[in-house]
Amino acid sequence: MIAAVTDLDGSVTAVHRTWLALDGSDKAPVAYPRRAMGYLLGNGVRFGRNGPMMMAGEGIETMLSLRQAMPIMPAIAGLSAAHLAVILFPAGLRRLYVARDNDPAGAGALKTLTERAIPARIEIVPLEPRLGDFNDDLVAFGRARPAAGLRAQLRTADAGHFLTQG
Predict the structure, then answer these.
(1) Contact 86, 42 (CB under 8 A)
(2) What single DSSP character describes residue 56?
């Protein structure tokens, strides 16, 4: 899987590669199945255009899993907890949903993003998976259960606008 890493203007700054198993069921059984080359700091893999509401998470798989339930919400994958913590905020961003991984690194990324967002007057709303991350949730539970969990975590107006029905 190859993904373009872009800056706020949409310019490609890096390329992220994930080697997959031949049957597509998981990452390939190689020493380092994920690699990036280029400039990552502050940038990420983007899904959709920047907007006043966005979601951000560590991995590409996490963000693609969330987009199963919220296909029109703009998103960015920071590619690691450390990189998620330092993503650059686009102009006009008012609310950022942070799909943190359920581990200490995910908690740290959420804390750092929240501290950075306060002076920028950006509301941070954590999105918590049941398992390790939202991709784990999608694989284990299918689409309906994670979507129901998201509905309870999103602001009411955002849930009505961004969540798919069914």
Answers:
(1) yes
(2) E
- 85 closest CA partner among 116, 45, 64, 59: 116
Predicted TM-score of the model (pTM):
0.92
Domain 43-162: assigned CATH number: 3.40.1360.10
- Spatial neighbors of 58 by CB under 8 A, at least 6 apart, are 77, 78, 79, 80, 81, 83, 84, 99, 100, 101, 105, 106, 109, 133
Work out the percent of the chain whose per-residue pLDDT is above 90: 81
In the chain, what are the domain boundaries? 43-162
Q: Round to whole Å and give the CA distance between 18 and 6.
A: 17
pLDDT in tens, 70-114: 999 999 999 999 999 999 999 999 999 999 999 999 999 999 999
